[in-house]
Amino acid sequence: MAAVALRSTTIPALTVTLAAGLAVLFGYWSAWILQSAEPLHADGAFQVRSLGDDASFDDVVGELDGIAAGAGETLTVEKNLPDTRVIYADSATAARWKEGGYPGLPPGEAVEVHELSELPFAEYRQTYYHSGGQQVFERYARALDERGIDYLEFGSQWLAYLLGQRAFGSLFSLAVFALAVVAFLATTVAAKREAVGALHGDSVATSVARIVAATPLPCWIFAAVATVAPPAWLAATGRGESLPDYLVAWVAMLAVFLAAAAAGLFAARIVLRAQAIPQLLRGKLATPVVVGSNLVVRGLSLVLVAGLVVEAGALGAEVARQREDKPAWQAVTDVYRFAITGARDDPSVDEAVPSLAAAVRELDAEGAVLFASATPNPDDEEELHYNWAAFERSLSPGPEGLGITDDDRAGGVILVSPAAGRQAAQWLIEEAAEEGFSPRVVEASGYSAFTWDAGQAEWLPSATLHEPPILVYPEGRLPNDEEILSAVSNGSLTITGEANAHRLATNPESGSLIEAVDPLAATWAGHHRTALTTLATLLAGLLTAVLILAGATVLCALAVRRAVIGRHRVYWLLGVPRTKPVAALVALEAIVAVVTAGYVLWSWRESRYLASVSDEFAHANVFHPAAVGLVAAVVVASSALWLAIVINRPRRERQA
C-alpha cells in the first residue's frame, strides 16, 4: 500500500469537504423527515374539536378553503391508508398538485390528493395544517369563533419530529463531533504555523484564514457542486415547492457545522498555546493527546455504528412482521374508530357520557358495534375480550368450528380456552368470578383470532394471535357508561359501517365528545408508515455512520502515524523487526474492538432481560443475530484500514 502522508493541507481540505457534504446530507435528510411527518408548506396547525352552532360541513370547509385561497396559502388534512398517503388540500392547492403531482419528499412515495370538500364522513373536525404563519391562522380562528366551534392551536412540531428520530439525532451529534475533531486536527497538524503565529500574536481570524488558504481548489469545487446540485435536482424533478424547506434546513445545518468547526479550532488553539513553542516549531504533536483522541473518536464511531445496526435489525424484523399483517388489515374496510375530544361546551361531561353510551347501545342492538380488547394477564400472555359481533368476525375457523352456535348468542358468557394452555385461561375464569358470573368453558385447538388492535406507535401488536384465551360476552352485554367512554377513547370499541360511524359522530347529544372518525385500518397504516419511515431513517443513518467511521478511521490513523513514526523509523534504520511497537498498536486497536463488543453484548443481554419481563418489550426489542456478524465485519474492516495506514512504511524510506 502506498504511504499516506499527513500534510498541512490534508485536514483543512477534509474540513471544507465535510462541512459542505454534511450540510447537504443532513439538510435533505431533515427536510425529508419533516415532510414525512407533516404535509408540505405546513408551519402551523389547529385542531377542530367540536361541532358548531348550526354549522354544516359545506359551510365550515368552504369558508376555510376560501380563506386559504384568498391568502394564497395552503390548508391540508392528512390521512393514511395501508399503501398510500392521502392528503386533502384546499381547492387551489389540490388542483395544482393533481396536475403536477405531489411535490414533497421523499420522491416516489404513493400520494393521493383530494380537495377538502371530499373529507370522509363530511366531517370537519380534523387537524388542519396551514401555511402563512400566525397572521393567516387568526383568520381561520375568527371564522371558527363566529360559528361557536372549539379548536386547539399548536405550531409546527418540526423540532419534536427531528429529535424523535433516533438515527438522525445520533448521527447529527456524531457529525458535529467529527467536524469539531477534524477542525481540531486541522489546527494541531499545522502546529509549526500556529507556533509561529503565536510568536507574532496572530488572531483567531488569521488561523481561520490559514485553513481556508490551505484548502485545495478541488475541495472548493466539491463544496460548490454540493451546494448547487440538490436545488437544481429538486427544480428539475418538479419538486420546486420543496426547495424552501430544503434551503432552510441546509442553512441551519451549515451554520451548526461551521460552529462545530469553530469550536474545534478554539479548542486546538487552547491546547497548542499551552505547549512549549520550541516543540511546536518542530511540528511534533503530543503523543498522549493523539492516542487519547484516537480512542475516543474511534470508540464512539464504532459504538454508534453498532447501535444503529442493532436498532435497524430489530425494526427491520418488526417491519417484515407488519408486512405479513398487512393483508389482514387491508380487509378491514368498514370498521371505524373515534378520538375523544377535550372540548366540553354543551352538553356537559356528565350529560354527554350517558348520551354517548346510549347511542353506542342503540348501535349495538343493530349489530354495528365491535368490542375487542387485548390485554396481558399476570403471566404476560395476551387474553382477548369480545362481544359477540367481534367474536364472529375475529375467529378462524369461526365459532361453528369450535362447536359454538347461534343459540349461544343470547346465552351466558363463554370462555374459549386453548387445550394446551388451561393455566392461561384460569386468569380469565378468576376475572369473570370477580365480576359475578361463571363462564362456560370451551376447550379448543388450532384456532386463531384477529385482535383489532391498531397499536399506539411504530411497534405494533400482532394482528392475529394463535390460540389465545378469549372471553366472549353475549349479545346486548356492554360495559357501563364510563367503561364505554374509555373503550371508545382507546379504540377497543369500534363501529362498523360508514353511515353508523357518522351517525354516532354527529349525534346532537353526544357528538361534541367525538373529535375525529377514522377507519381503523388507517390508524394501523399510520403507525406502519411511521415504522417504515423510521427504518429508512435508520438505514440512511447507518450508511452515514459507516462513511463517518471511514473518515474518522483515516484521520485517526494519520494522526497516530505522525505521532509514532519516529520510533518506527529507528527500527527501520536498524533493520530490527517492529514486533514490540506493532504489538502496542494492535493492543490499542483491540481496546476499541473490546469496547464495541461489550456494547453489542450489553444490547443482547438487555433484549433477553426485556423478553423475560414482558412479551410486549420482547416484541419491540428483538436482537437480530445478523447484527453480530455485520458489526464484526465493520470492526475488522475498520481495524485493518487503521493498522494498514499506521504500520505501513513510507515509500521513500523503502526505496532508500
From TrEMBL:
TM segments? 12-34, 167-190, 211-234, 246-268, 538-560, 581-602, 622-647
Tagged with keyword Membrane: yes
Q: Which keywords does the record carry? A: Membrane, Transmembrane, Transmembrane helix
From which domain of life does this come? Bacteria
Q: Does the keyword Cell inner membrane apply?
A: no
Give the protein name, as stated in the record: Putative secreted protein
Record organism:
Corynebacterium otitidis ATCC 51513
Higher taxonomy: Bacteria, Bacillati, Actinomycetota, Actinomycetes, Mycobacteriales
